[in-house]
Amino acid sequence: MTPTITPESLQTLVHLADQAGQAIMEIYQRNSPMQQARKSDSSPLTEADLAANAILVAGLIAQWPHIPVLSEENLNQFALGERPPLYWAVDPLDGTKEFIKRNGEFTVNLALVVDGEPQIGVVGAPAQGLMYLGCAGSSWRGAPIARKRSAAGWEDIRVSGYIPGAHAPRPLRVAMSRSHPSPELAAWLAPWGALEARDVGSSLKFCLVAEGAVDVYPRLGPTCIWDTAAGHALVAAAGGRVCHLNGEDLRYPTPAHTLNPFFVVWGERAAPCV
Asked: Residues 152, 176: one domain?
């Protein structure tokens, strides 16, 4: 049965993301070298990943013991082909490479996935003092909300609504991965003509689309559910769309299969997913 996420529940999720961000920043601000290891896929792992993961997973299980958790830093407990009606998707430190580089472009990602659709998304950017929150779908019974918290407080955000084309009034603003460029991306960008590119790490690219700072984020490289679900929910709540290159909406029905296909994040529902 789909849970109803209340405003109080949202505050709990934001609080967990804040706690995880604080743990990350305590390690980030040390003068001593960061402790690092390598996972089986050769991606880096730091003590900050593990500290944030412990806070998020424990907090979610304590509050919602009936909802399973998919986390990048936990053993995947889902069976092959299993389609859970709902689960949490967690990336305790998205952008570990950016964390190690100390450029501040890393995030805490937390999403509720309902029947394969990300409906609640929380993205914290602790080094930048930012928090993003998106809610839509059956788990949130009110009108969709997409909000950003900065030093000035909370504000509503909205996608740009820009549709590229021959008569577009300005260049297409594109968010691109700082750490994962690809020849496929260059080929995808070629037909669009004039571009304004912005390189940024982690799920901050989704956030830029959601707040209308860029128009599109094409990702023609590997990502996993925990990398994208929270940002996906945020963009959808803000009026955008995340889709496969064939035009179908991106979904996450089988959490045992964590790898995503290539996708495009548009700041307009009617934009072409090609």
From this structure: no
